Amino acid sequence: MVQMGASDLHLKVGRPPTLRINGDLSPLPLPGLRPEDMSTLAKELMSPKQVKEFAEFREADFATGVPGIGRFRVNAYQQRGTIAFAIRTVPHQAKSIAELNLPGIVEEVALLPRGLVLVTGVTGSGKSTALASMLQVMNERRHANIITIEDPIEFLHRDVKCHINQREVGIDTGSFGQALRRVLRQDPDVILIGEIRDLDTLDTALKAADTGHLVFSTLHTTDATQTINRILSFYPPHQQNEVRFALSTALAAVVSLRLVPRSDRPGRVPASEILINTAAVREQIRDVSKTLNIPDLIKEGTVQYGMQSFDQSLMSWYSKGVISYENALFYATNPNEFALRVQGVAGSSDNSWNDFETDELG
After folding, report:
1. Cβ 33 vs Cβ 23: under 8 Å
2. Is the Cα torsion angle 45, 49, 51, 53 positive or negative in sign?
3. Helix or strand holding residue 357 (H, E)
4. What's the pLDDT at 348?
5. Alpha-carbon distance 359 to 340, whole Å?
6. Which residues contact 30 (CB under 8 A, 6 or more apart)?
7. pTM of the prediction?
8. How many CB atoms lie within 10 A of CB 55?
9. So what's the pLDDT on residue 362?
10. How far apart are CA 124 and CA 87, in angstroms?
11. What is the pLDDT of residue 291?
12. Angle between helices 279-286 and 240-250 (to 10 degrees)
């Protein structure tokens, strides 16, 4: 897995071990796995407590390290009465924002003094990796007390300038809720919550951001619009006014990611949508009578605030020859508009694309 640069390893009975390389599944030339292979592996990988948890819930999440090879995030689950594993490799060292090919504005977001920063995307779109690089920026530039609550801990951070405490659910704390109830008593400047899964977690994140802390977390949403709608949907109708006000004040930025296959060489690059919570964005989130029009707000904030849409990000990669036209269209939010843009059919008054297009595209 490590030698071939795979992101994931899938193990299930009856199939050979299968790697995910650059987004595609690739079975290894090995015989199919037997039930006893999986049971032996489960006993080797899991602690007695995890074995007990698996017996009770038929699934378990944990991280493991293999000396000299690497660190891995493991999900063990049961399917058709047998054990299966999804294992993801976790790099030893967080990469820099430039190495991840993320836009420079992400570095500025990482150094914000306060507010809620959400990194979103589907599973496997690089959320944890992006968060780790943002934490690394802070670790190198700020003197802050950082508390992370993760399930499980993926990247191991060493203190550089920051004081970093990483807490793993199930080992260092009973649950996300329990850790969050006490986190503000631990004098944090920065709080990282592995994932917002429920209303209590979201509530704590908003309150912490509103009281002057910088809070990072992730959501499984595809773009900034869906992210804001998902947050609002956590709350019942009678609380909508209140939560819109709280969100408009607490939110700092949304960074949404999609990994796109490269056409110039093997690998993938991130297409990223960046929403910064400007006065115009705040006003629209707050106003119940208005329909959210995040794409227009991103367009308006491109030049001044460094915001960008997925389609602008894709245009930038396409115009540099990094991704193919077909993949750019496949991952675009508005494929028809993107196609017209490539053909040069677009409103001349729209300058928000200027930095994303090269002269060859017209």
Report:
1. no
2. negative
3. none
4. 53
5. 16
6. 16, 17
7. 0.86
8. 9
9. 40
10. 12
11. 78
12. 170
Rg of the chain taking only CA atoms, in angstroms: 22
Q: Are 51 and 66 in contact (CB under 8 A)?
A: no
| Greatest Cα pair distance in the chain | 66
Instruction: Identify any residues that bridge with 121 across adjacent strands, giving them in sequence order.
Output: none
- The type of residue at 280 is A
- Residue 346's pLDDT is 62
Return the DSSP state at 289.
Answer: T
Helix (H), strand (E), coil (C) string for 4-65 = CCCCEEEECECCCCEEEECCEEEECCCCCECHHHHHHHHHHHCCHHHHHHHHHHCEEEEEEE
User: What tokens appear for 163 in the block?
Assistant: 């004081």
Domains and CATH numbers, the chain: 8-90 (3.30.450.90), 105-308 (3.40.50.300)
**281, two tokens:** 């964005």
Closest by Cα among 31, 30, 26 to 9: 26
One DSSP character per residue, 89-149 reads EE-SSPPPTTTTT--THHHHHHT-SSEEEEEE-STTSSHHHHHHHHHHHHHHH---EEEEE
The structure tokens listed for 51 are: 């074995």
pLDDT along the chain (362 residues), means of 10: 93 97 94 95 91 92 87 94 94 89 96 97 93 96 96 90 94 89 94 94 94 96 95 94 95 97 94 96 89 89 93 95 96 93 72 72 44
